Amino acid sequence: MSKEAPAGYSRMQIVLHWAVAVLVVVQFLLGPAMSSFVEAERTGADPGFGALAWAHVGVGLAILLLAFWRVGLRFANGVPAPAFEPKTPEQEFIAFLTRELSFFLYLTIFALPITGAIGWFYQNEVATSVHGSMKVLVIVIVGVHIAISLFHQFVLRNGALDRMRRPN
Q1: How far is CA 52 from the centre of its chain?
Q2: Family, per the entry (predicted)?
């Protein structure tokens, strides 16, 4: 028996979405401090206490926990049906892009803190390198996510963005 899709996102799904979005921005602001700390350690210089580096670690772990919570709610509550039924090849492409982008967005939201934690706590240079290299990927994925959301809101005018602002 298939569970019916909810009319919209729950209040908690919306709160978690925006909390992760804000924390991702905070991570980009803390990133240079973490890079400086790691570089100082790598070259044998005294990195100092590294409060901002530890803040980066803490925020990354918070993102990971919130992402697990969000995915749990996604499985428990489901997600609303797509905001529109594609009628043209262009609309089908937008629907495909939206679906696939969600997958890659979740993948990076899990992969970044996991590789960062492995790099930090286990001093694993491969994980640290992968973590640092994913920065551009996240910027692209988030940028496309924002662009598609704005396209839905202002071009298709289907209210898709409103579903992430107002609970069902």
Answers
A1: 21
A2: Belongs to the cytochrome b561 family.
